[in-house]
Structures are given as structure tokens and as C-alpha cells.
UniProtKB/TrEMBL annotation, chain A:
Coiled-coil positions: none
Organism: Fictibacillus solisalsi
GO cellular component: plasma membrane
Lineage: Bacteria, Bacillati, Bacillota, Bacilli, Bacillales
Protein name: Putative ABC transport system permease protein
Compartment(s) of residence: Cell membrane
Transmembrane segments: 12-28, 57-77, 84-103, 152-173, 201-223, 229-251, 258-277, 289-307
PANTHER family, A to Z: ABC TRANSPORTER PERMEASE PROTEIN YPHD-RELATED-RELATED, BRANCHED-CHAIN AMINO ACID TRANSPORT SYSTEM, PERMEASE PROTEIN
TrEMBL record, chain B:
Record organism: Fictibacillus solisalsi
Cross-referenced InterPro entries: AAA+_ATPase, ABC_transporter-like_ATP-bd, ABC_transporter-like_CS, ABC_transporter_ATP-bind, P-loop_NTPase
PROSITE patterns found in the cross-reference section: ABC_TRANSPORTER_1, ABC_TRANSPORTER_2
Alphabetized GO MF terms: ATP binding; ATP hydrolysis activity
Annotated Gene3D superfamilies: P-loop containing nucleotide triphosphate hydrolases
Family annotation (SMART domains): AAA
Full protein name: Putative ABC transport system ATP-binding protein
Membrane topology per record: Peripheral membrane protein
Highest taxon of source: Bacteria
Gene Ontology cellular-component annotations: plasma membrane
One Pfam family linked to the record: ABC_tran
Length: 339, 267
């Protein structure tokens, strides 16, 4: 139960990162590996600023802005430098590794123990509201009383923030600029013939995507109590896993539906990981392997299932056809005998 | 009256100085009056598409000048030029965004001649306008407004592309073999729509086609291209007496050889 709860908590935070990956990967059709670096950039900047006594909320926003700039540079590498999307992302990711170390003053880890973070502030505020008692009483009453979390504050506040970001994203993707960004990922030639500058739209889209990723990085650092130079490794795969799982489970009929699916996908992913780690055999170090397996499964399984369904349908049709033919054969035989 | 489109001695050579050197356009001079509907024919590699790409800004000419309404547009990139140039491509998939709905596609086309802002892409007012516009296609698309364009057939998508390229009344409409990839009945439908829309808005149009009959039937002027040059320019009066046979004879007379494209002959 406790593992499940922390999966929910971190899930809603990672959902912001997944929304960022959704923007680049799905909306812009740009597999952007900058994510691995910009996640850490967000974490490093916010952690460093907090250690230096800055307001944690301001520190988080500063991290987000840095992510925006990193994404824009990837976009410029691709559009102006004509470097292929994957390579521009990888280049930026590698460059950010050194930059992140510089931000953290050449230390690979910045602990936040004993510092005021966004979450200690939120928890403090939340406890004054006295909602925890009510929620816990309620859960105890319906028989879920064992091992309740210390506070619901982080979960509720983060769920609200994430949903807010979701609604802003939905709104943005329906504005004139948003429509043009979606068309850039869908059919560049077409939107160029309608006087849209696909280069600057790509740069803007990647900037926004990485701003969300860095925002999530800043929050995860404060949630976990440290920023680490290696914390972004495989982040793009986690984001992809969330996007793919979410889309498969909850559908993509409209933009609003798709962004909700991505958020839920991120939470489901955390829950899967939490359960996987409860299995004796697995160790914490296996996390990335499990993630890769999840992504492989969620990419391959739907195709296999579709192929199976298609086969079954064909077999059924053939059988019906044969039955119909046999029926006719009997009819013909009957008429022959009759005549 | 001011000329709408002027090309002055436009040259374009591909792979210049290599064994693959190929003349795209050679000394093209072309002037279009407002309201002209010019059809362009020629065999494969004659330079028709190159001409379209130079006008729309996809390609930059090696030499020459390009004026729209008397102003040089050579230094405007493609996306800026497309404020006043509407375009329909040969590939029915090329003119629309498949994962977006019909109304979203229309909204993007509608935003052509202004700066895109953070205002809602689709408003109540624009929605009504789109409904009216789509009704004029007589395809029943107005009832499938929130359907994704990828679900439409090739003919429907091409009709929508044509509408999107024209309903903001661009100064110039470029049609690049826009019926070539469709089956005959769909092609006829798009041809009729083209006629209707062009005359309704009085659009200055340049239409490339492989179909000689179509080139003769449509428009008030016909030009024939070969090896990057305009080899024949037929005005409205003489175009009325034109037949496919006469066109082929004319080509033979000018070039001293038979027209090399089976496709052009058969169509």
C-alpha cells in the first residue's frame, strides 16, 4: 500500500515529464533525446538555487526556463544546422551533461537534506488545512486503514498542478499557433504552404517540451531530496513508456483525451515498476532493464495482437465462405436427385 | 492594369558543373494578367514542376526576377510567399494534415494571411464560415466536421485541399497536376470544382496538367513547355479552336520530333 502510494505521488510528478515527451514525440513527431539532459538541468538548477537560499518555487521556475532554452537549442541544431533529429537531441544531451556538472559546481550530487523545498512548503501549508485527518479517517472507515501516508498534500497539490498543465497544453494546442505546431508534426509541406514557418514552430515546440521535462526534473529533485548528474539516464524511455502505455490503455481520440492518457500512463508506469520491484528477484539496479522491457512489450504486443485478430477474422471468413459453398453444393445435389 | 505575376528571364540549372547537370528552366518569360487561368502542359522533365516550385519559393532560381503585383518576391522564403500563393499538390495526401480534423485543417488554411496568435484556432464565427465553404463542395463533408482528415478518401482530401488553398482568395493559385493521382470520375469532380472555384473568386491560376484535353478545356490561355523552355503560348482566341491532334502536330513542328510521353498521348 505504501509503495503504491509513493508510486501515485511520483507518478503525477513524472506525468509532467511525460507530457513534455508527448509534445515532442507525438505532436512534433520528433524523437527528442535532449530529455535525458534537460531533466537533470531542471533538477540541478533548482537544487543549486535552493542550496543557495533561493525561494524553492522560483528555483523550480528557473529550472523550467533552462529546459526551455535547451530545447530551443536542439530545435535550432535541427532546423538551421540541418542535423537529423536524433543526432541533434543526442548532441544536446551530451553537451548538457557537462553543463549540468558546471551548474552543480562540478559535484555529481547536490543533496537537499534539511533545506526548504517546494514540497516541505506545500506539506506545511497542507497540514494547516487539516484535510489529511479527514481523508485518513475516511479510508480507515472503508477498511484501507493500514499504513496510510503521512500526508496527502503532495499527491493532491501535484495532481492539481499536473491537471492544470494538462488543460493549458490542451488549450495551447487548439490556438492558431498550436494548430500550426501540430500540423508541423503532421505535414510540414502543407503547413508551409499556409504561411507557417515550420522552423520556428519546431524550435518553439521543442522548447516547450523540454520546459515541461525540466520542470518535472526540478520537482523530482525536491521530492527525492537530491539532484544527481545521472538522474536523467533513460528518462526519454520512461517518458515514451508513459506515452505508449497511456495511449494503449486510454485512447487518443482527441487532444484532451490523449494528454489525460499520457498522465494516467505515467502513473500506471510507476505502479508497474513498484510491483515489479516487489518481486524478490529484481534489484533496484534492474529498473532500467524493466523499463526497456515494458517499452518493448508495449510496442510489440499491440502489433502481435492485431495480427492475431486479423488472422482469426480471415479464418472465420474463409470458414463462412466454405459453409456457404457446401450449402450450395447440397442444394445442387438435391435438385439433381429431385430431377 | 498591373501584371499580377511576372517572370523575367528565369534560369534554373540542377547539379551545375557535374555530369548530372540538367536544365530545369531556361530563360522563362511569363506574364499573367489578373484573372488569367493558364494551363501548362509538357512531357516529363519539361520543367513544369520546377516552374511551380520557383514561383512558390521551394526552389531559388539561378538567374532572373520574379514579381508579384509588381513587387519582387525572390527574397521571400516559401512560408512568407504562401501568404499570397495558394497551392494544391499532385499527391492528395500532401495538402492536408491527416491526424487533424476537417475544421482544424480549415482553420489553419484560414489563418494564412495573418500572424498566428494565441487566439482560439476555431471560433463560433469561423466555424459557420467553414460550414458554408465546405457545403460548396457538395460532398457532405459538413456533417463530418470533427472527423480526422486521414479518414477521408483521396478525392475528398483533394477537394478539401482545393478549398483550403482557395477560400482565402490568394493572389495566385498554383495547381500542380492536382487531378493526376485520382481515378477518372474523381478527377472529373475535382476538375469541375476547380472551374467553379476559380471563376467564383476570379483567381489568377496556373495549372499544370498531363491531360491535354483538360488543358484545352480549362482556362483562357495555354502554354506548352519542353526542356525548360516555353515553346508554345496559345491565347484565348486560338485556344478555342485547339484540339489534342493540333497540339501534338504543333509540338512536332516546333521540335521536329514526336512528343515523347506516352502518358500525354494516351490521356
Amino acid at each position: 500500500m505504501f509503495a503504491l502510494f509513493s508510486a501515485l505521488e511520483s507518478g503525477v510528478i513524472y506525468a509532467i515529464m511525460a507530457l513534455g515527451v508527448y509534445l515532442s514525440f507525438r505532436i512534433l513527431d520528433f524523437p527528442d533525446l535532449t530529455v535525458d539532459g534537460s531533466f537533470v538541468t531542471g533538477a540541478a538548477i533548482s537544487a543549486t538555487l535552493i542550496v543557495h537560499g533561493q525561494n524553492p518555487f522560483l528555483a523550480t521556475i528557473a529550472g523550467m526556463l533552462a529546459g526551455f532554452i535547451a530545447g530551443c537549442i536542439t530545435g535550432i541544431l535541427h532546423t538551421k544546422g540541418k542535423i537529423n533529429p536524433l543526432l541533434s537531441g543526442i548532441l544536446m544531451m551530451i553537451a548538457l551533461y557537462s553543463i549540468n556538472l558546471r551548474i552543480m559546481d562540478q559535484r555529481s550530487n547536490v543533496p537537499l537534506l534539511g533545506e526548504d523545498t517546494s514540497f516541505t512548503l506545500i506539506t506545511g501549508f497542507w497540514q494547516k488545512l487539516g484535510i489529511d485527518g479527514t481523508v485518513n479517517n475516511l479510508l480507515t472507515a472503508i477498511g484501507l486503514g493500514e499504513s496510510l501516508p503521512k500526508t496527502w498534500g503532495i499527491f493532491f497539490v501535484m495532481a492539481i498542478v499536473t491537471l492544470l498543465i494538462k488543460f493549458v497544453t490542451d488549450w495551447f494546442l487548439r490556438t492558431e499557433v498550436g494548430l500550426a505546431i501540430r500540423a508541423t508534426g503532421d505535414n510540414k509541406r502543407m503547413i508551409r504552404s499556409f504561411s507557417a514557418n515550420t522552423d520556428s514552430l519546431t524550435v518553439l515546440g521543442l522548447g516547450l517540451s523540454n520546459a515541461l521535462v525540466a520542470f518535472a526534473g526540478a520537482l523530482i529533485a525536491q521530492y527525492g531530496g537530491f539532484a544527481d548528474v545521472g538522474m536523467g539516464i533513460g528518462m526519454i524511455i520512461i517518458g515514451l513508456a508513459s506515452v505508449i502505455i497511456g495511449e494503449a490503455l486510454f485512447g487518443t481520440k482527441s487532444i484532451g483525451r490523449a494528454t489525460l492518457a499520457v498522465i494516467l500512463g505515467a502513473v500506471v508506469y510507476r505502479i508497474i515498476i513498484a510491483f515489479a520491484l516487489q518481486i524478490e528477484f529484481f534489484e533496484t539496479g534492474d529498473l532500467k532493464l524493466i523499463t526497456a522491457l515494458i517499452v518493448v512489450c508495449s510496442l510489440v504486443l499491440p502489433k502481435l495482437l492485431d495480427a492475431r485478430k486479423e488472422q482469426a477474422r480471415k479464418a472465420k471468413r474463409r470458414q463462412l465462405h466454405r459453409q456457404a459453398l457446401e450449402g450450395k453444393g447440397e442444394e445442387i445435389a438435391a435438385t439433381k436427385i429431385g430431377s | 492594369m498591373k501584371k499580377l505575376l511576372q517572370l523575367k528571364s528565369v534560369h534554373k540549372i540542377f547539379n551545375e558543373g557535374t555530369p548530372d547537370e540538367k536544365i530545369g528552366l531556361s530563360n522563362i518569360r511569363l506574364e499573367l494578367e489578373p484573372g488569367d487561368f493558364v494551363t501548362v502542359i509538357g512531357s516529363n522533365g519539361a520543367g513544369k514542376s520546377t516552374l511551380m516550385n520557383v514561383i512558390s519559393g521551394v526552389l531559388y532560381p539561378d538567374m532572373g526576377e520574379l514579381l508579384i503585383k509588381g513587387k519582387s518576391v525572390l527574397n521571400l522564403p516559401e512560408h512568407k510567399r504562401s501568404r499570397f500563393i495558394g497551392r494544391v499538390f499532385q499527391d492528395p495526401m500532401a495538402g492536408t494534415a491527416p491526424t487533424m480534423t476537417i475544421e482544424e485543417n480549415l482553420a489553419m488554411a484560414y489563418a494564412r494571411n495573418k500572424r498566428r496568435s494565441l487566439k482560439r484556432g476555431i471560433t463560433k464565427k469561423s466555424k459557420e464560415f467553414f460550414q458554408e465553404a465546405v457545403k460548396s463542395l457538395h460532398l457532405g463533408l459538413e456533417n463530418r466536421f470533427t472527423a480526422k482528415v486521414g479518414l477521408l478518401s483521396g478525392g475528398e482530401r483533394q477537394a478539401l485541399s482545393l478549398l483550403m488553398a482557395t477560400f482565402t482568395e490568394p493572389d495566385i493559385l498554383l495547381l500542380d497536376e492536382h487531378t493526376a493521382a485520382l481515378d477518372p470520375s474523381r478527377a472529373a469532380l475535382i476538375t469541375d470544382l476547380t472551374k467553379e472555384i476559380v471563376s467564383k473568386h476570379g483567381l489568377t491560376t496556373l495549372m499544370v496538367t498531363h491531360n491535354m484535353q483538360q488543358a484545352i478545356d480549362l482556362g483562357n490561355r495555354l502554354i506548352m513547355m519542353d526542356k525548360g523552355q516555353i515553346i508554345l503560348d496559345v491565347d484565348e482566341e486560338s485556344k478555342k479552336q485547339l484540339t489534342v491532334e493540333r497540339l501534338l502536330e504543333e509540338f512536332q513542328r516546333i521540335r521536329g520530333e514526336k512528343m515523347a510521353s506516352d502518358r500525354a498521348l494516351l490521356s
